[in-house]
Amino acid sequence: MRVETITRINFDPPESLSLRVAFLSLWFIDMVAATLFFVVPYANELNPVTVLFFEFLGLPGVPLAAGLYALLIMGIGHVLSHPRDIQFIGAIVAFYTLFVINNVLLLLSGDPLVSIVGL
Known about the structure:
Keywords: Membrane, Plasmid, Transmembrane, Transmembrane helix. This is DUF5658 domain-containing protein. This protein is mainly alpha-helical. It has one domain (about 15-115). The chain contains five helices and no strands.
């Protein structure tokens, strides 16, 4: 009797290097902004997981939570097959673009993107 592996997960990163670099760049800016939210008095971090990490570990908990998000997203991108992996990372880049614009505007002006646009 032969024993074979029933399922095997093949890790293959999305082929678009520029999308991965864009994600990591936007993720880094978002992580810095999220960390600053705990320093400035006029802005609050809304993500409950990041707040929980901050409560337990202080400021080092914020980059740790952000790092876990990045690992999760990169892991999902590696598991998905082509072209779903590129579509997934592209959608994440679009979301992170909105997050970064909102967070940077909030830090610079004190107002979120929604109130600046007037929605």
